[in-house]
Amino acid sequence: MARFRRRDDRKAKAGGRRKRLFAEEGKRLVLTPPEGVPLHLVVAGLGARLGAQIVDLVLTTFATFAIILALLFADLVGEAAFGAIATFVILALGTPFYIVCELLMNGRTPGKKLLGLRVVSNNGSGLSTHQIVVRNLTKEVEVFLPAAFLIGGGEESFWFNGMMLLWLVVVCAVPLRSAANRRIGDLVADTAVVLDPRPLLLPDVADAVGRAARERFVFSSGQLDLYGAYELQVLERLLRGGEEARDSRERQKGLARIGARIRAKIGYAERISPQEEEAFLKSFYVAQRAYLEQKKLMGEARADKFHREETTVENP
Amino acid sequence: MSATSGSIRSTRFRDEREAGWKRLAEIVEAAEKRGLSRLSFDDARDLVMLYRQAVNSLSVAREISLDAAVVRYLESLCARAYLVVYAPREGLRGLLARFFARSAPQAVRRSFVPILVSFALMGLGGLAAYLLTNADSTWFYAFVPGDLAAGRGPGASAEALRRVIYGEDRQPLGELGAFATYLFSHNTKVALFAFALGVVFCVPSVLLLIYNGAMLGTFVSVHAEKGLALDFMGWVTIHGVTELSAIAIASAGGLTLGYAMLFPGLRSRAAALRHAGRDAAKLAVVAAVMLVAAGILEGVGRQLVTDFWARLAVGWGAGLGWLGWFVLAGRGGPGPAGAGGAEA
């Protein structure tokens, strides 16, 4: 069900600049929910996952110590019972803790929640109990055992140490080689860890353009026929870019430069004063977008100014 | 296009639907914070409808809109809502009830053959070790690691062996202490490894099974030499029936995984592994439950029950209980059948 896309610099150069749009997003995972519309999620990096694991480990260790110390000071139980309860606490705050957390918190542990990660089922249906149990059962042998080996420093047996090192290499190699940074447990359970999607709706650039500006600058269809979707979105980012954050004079200069280049390219005869530059670019953006959207509706999608057939930025 | 209504198509598209998206985002936010079950009636009713609408909008926006902001927003919003709408709904209690009443015994019944193979392998190892140690008692040291033998080697006197068996030199920590040490003991690790490493084409599971059987066999041989075979059997039985069954069941899970790797059939190896994992994971959980029970039997039972026949009765009684659970529970189709719920 799932397809993966990995940003590759060489490929991106060969395939045109528009892939740069997704440069900051890294590997992506495509899920198809039962509604049939593919959703694109960003795969969590190995660093973030390691961080979440460490947070969880610190948390459970801290909780274990707290409970044991509380028992010790409360002095309610005898020495023998204390040993038994302590052992039980240590066991319960291992794998069962992760399973219960991911079950109750919908695929998250406290560490994952803190770092904005989340376990999703790869097949587009909801995360099942079985998947959670499997991916955490293997965690014991896949994460804790090598970690204990590294911290503990192994045993005398040459064979044992050799086998552990080999196992360590395998455990590290699988997520590095895997398309979505999946560890062995993820592969067996058919899950993946993704960044929690955060919806943020930016205002529409086209909304901000007044009717007067659009009537002031008029473009012929010949002038609008030169650019494609990629250039449009570069312009959109430019117009959006730091409307209050950046120094306005720097911004004016940048806009003037771009405006001049666009006018040269499309052959726009009129000279524009620096005050009108932004209004010009915005009305060009609106006109260009309306033109391209209409073309797209008629089945003539255009990815960029080289008139490449749009393989669509979302699904290459 | 733009001249007629004052704005372009994709802007109108957005304006018409934006209120719905915002409301969906609010509901999703509330559901994430306070839980799905605490949503108000209206929110719960609208959640799914708005989710479908948002997914629909996303699909349309990808086709008609060149406003990257909208497509991206819808992408995240739909993913977020999807995670809430398709979240696991079952409570912990229902889950446990279902597992113990139905899915666990059914999985054990389906894995009848690998479990039988596990027992056979263990028996094979035991028999071989028994014969070898009978012929030459130094074999004992080859099978049993030093810390596990605890002075019970071929050199030990019958008196010393008897003392261990009938608990005259009680462990200083007492009953619960023994339970605690048990949980981290050798056998728990064996079960875990036999399950997880079975993925490597069954080899580690088979080796561990034979080896585990061999240890039992060599102990029996050493005790039999001193005429204590029956007493040793009583000592082992009280928790051994449960414990060895747990190891066999965990190994059967490992064998299932390894078999899927070796002979994936028409599936790909990954798919075969995933399929085998459905039952194997349940076997592993069953084994974990049994090991905890074995720990209680070893810690409490063995120290309190020192009579030979009583030990035998408790040990095999527990074994029969497990068998009853596996064979009888969860037969009657869906619907909770409480036959084995008390077992755990």
TrEMBL record, chain A:
Keywords: Membrane, Transmembrane, Transmembrane helix. The keyword Membrane applies. It is found in: Membrane. The keyword Chloroplast does not apply. Residues 43-189 form the RDD domain. PANTHER family: SLR0254 PROTEIN. This is RDD family protein. It comes from Jiella sonneratiae.
TrEMBL record, chain B:
InterPro entries: SpoIIM-like (IPR002798). The keyword Transmembrane applies. The chain crosses the membrane at residues 112-132, 190-211, 232-260, 280-301, 308-328. Signal peptide: none annotated. Keywords: Membrane, Transmembrane, Transmembrane helix. This is Stage II sporulation protein M.
